Amino acid sequence: MISAIPTDTCYWLACNIYNKEAYYKIFELKNRPGNKLLSIAVITYNDLKLISLLSSSQINFLINYPHPFTILTKVNENFEFPIFLDKLQYSELWIRVASTFLDKDVISSLEFPIFLTSANNSWDSEIYDSSEIDAFFWNRIDKILPWKIKPNPPSNIFRFIWDTLELDYIRKNY
Question: What is the pTM of this model?
Answer without folding.
Answer: 0.91
